[in-house]
Design brief:
This protein has 313 residues and is mostly helical. It has helices at residues 3-11, 24-47, 50-76, 104-113, 117-136, 139-144, 149-182, 198-214, 217-227, 233-250, 282-308, and strands at 188-189, 195-196. β1 (188-189) and β2 form a beta hairpin. The longest helix is centred in the middle third of the chain and has 34 residues, at 149-182.
Length: 313
């Protein structure tokens, strides 16, 4: 090799070494990919369970039973008795209007299922979310993967919230189907006495279903917090449902009227205000604000408990 070649090699600028450290963009992409993958796994696991399918089946059956009962009652009283034509009588809100318009069966079914059936289903799913994994011995293996406790808890809560929406829509769609089969559809009369078109009524039914789903966020957060306190899924589910029943009972005691506005179930039936013209927003805003408060308080408590918990199973 000549001296000129040696000098040229020394003066040549060395190429920078390729860094093996991942960039922040690739790390963020990997994190988002893992997060969506974790959520997808949780959703598939939850909705493939027979328990979940059974709960959805029960919720779908409630509007069928209510619709058939109303149809039989109105047929028996078709001669113009007190129950004929859907007028008067006792029952949930909107039930007197079901025979005039099947769309009212959606509102009736949601009013029937919201006090107990829907919250019970949410309590079962939320209560089993963490405790069920611990009881099955799979919680520790989930945390071995690069998920992190916070991300896993958020995926669990998001799964419960999606179940809230799916469960509410199952009730609404089942009620709409039964209402269309058993009763006439068309323009409907609001609580305020004004007439609105069927399309407007269908849109309000969708909004009511979304409000009902949002009304269950407090129960979902409460159930998730209870689930972090125990390793028994059955105990967590029973505790959540028991608390739900207790709050419902306390909400009916007149002597507790000063505390009742702070119970998560107190403003649940405010969704009926969406069927007024104009819409009354006061109780709706109180309900959604209270659910957000419960979600923040019990969600934070669940995070504090879960991130400091000694996972042994």
């Amino acid at each position: 090799m000549s001296r000129a070649d040696t000098v040229d090699d020394r003066n040549r600028t060395p190429e920078p070494e390729r860094s093996l450290t991942p960039t922040s963009a690739s790390v963020r992409t990997a994190n988002w990919t893992w997060t969506f993958g974790l959520l997808r796994s949780e959703l598939l696991t939850t909705f493939r369970r027979w328990r979940t399918l059974a709960l959805l089946g029960v919720l779908a059956a409630v509007p069928v039973l209510v619709g058939i009962a109303v149809k039989i009652e109105t047929s028996d009283n078709s001669s113009g008795g007190p129950g004929g034509g859907g007028g008067g009588g006792e029952g949930p809100a909107f039930i007197s209007q079901v025979t005039n318009n099947g769309l009212f069966l959606v509102f009736t079914a949601l009013a029937v299922t919201l006090p107990f059936f829907l919250p019970m289903a949410i309590g079962v799913i939320a209560g089993d979310s963490i405790a069920g994994e611990a009881n099955a011995g799979t919680l520790r293996y989930l945390l071995v993967a690069p998920a992190g406790r916070t991300r896993l808890l958020l995926a669990k809560y998001a799964t419960v919230m999606i179940f809230c929406l799916v469960a509410t829509l199952v009730v609404a769609v089942s009620a709409l189907t039964v209402g269309a089969l058993l009763f006439p559809l068309g323009d409907l009369t609001t609580i305020s006495g004004t007439r609105i078109g069927f399309g407007d009524g269908l849109l309000r039914a969708l909004l009511i279903a979304l409000v009902v789903a949002a009304s269950l966020t407090g129960v979902a957060a409460l159930g998730l917090f209870v689930s972090t306190l125990t390793s028994s899924g059955i105990a967590a589910m029973a505790t959540t449902v028991g608390l739900l029943i207790t709050v419902q009972i306390l909400d009916q005691i007149p002597q507790l009227h000063a505390l009742q506005p702070y119970f998560f179930s107190h403003h649940w039936l405010s969704f009926a205000d969406l069927m007024r013209e104009p819409v009354y927003w006061d109780d709706l805003e109180k309900n959604l604000g209270l659910q957000a408060l419960y979600a923040a308080v019990f969600g934070s408590a669940a995070w504090a408990r879960f991130t400091t918990r000694d996972i042994t199973a």
